[in-house]
Amino acid sequence: MSKNNGSIPNNLSLVEKAIKEAKAPNIIHHRGDLNKVTSDGKEFTRQEYIIIPTMGQKVKCTPYDNHFVYRDARKLGWVLFCTCGSPAVVINYDAYKNHGSSQGALLACKAQIDTNEHNPVNR
Ligand SMILES: [Zn+2]
Description:
Blueprint: H1 14-21, E1 27-30, E2 33-39, E3 42-45, E4 49-52, E5 57-61, E6 69-71, E7 80-82, E8 88-92, E9 105-109, H2 110-115
Parallel strand pairs: 5-9
Antiparallel strand pairs: 1-2, 2-3, 4-5, 6-7, 8-9
The structure holds zinc ion.
């Protein structure tokens, strides 16, 4: 087995390469507007629900105060993000049925789930 020197191996599929090469989105926050960001040059606004084509349904977005989750379909690989720069994930938890998600699914910030905090902005 060859030693991994940090470069990306040639035997990966295009999707695998895209995931390995993926970088956190370049997010520009608009001063005084918590409902709009520019991510990699495209503007995204806060949504209550986001359609997840692979699930065939819309999923309620967790209503954070300072951040929101969005879907950037231009990307190959991960397409769900939080405005803190973290990937976003769909969680299914029965307790959330009582918090406004009729289907028991929520789109949430992965950093916030893992650490109870969003990634620091301007890191
Ligand atoms: Zn976040």
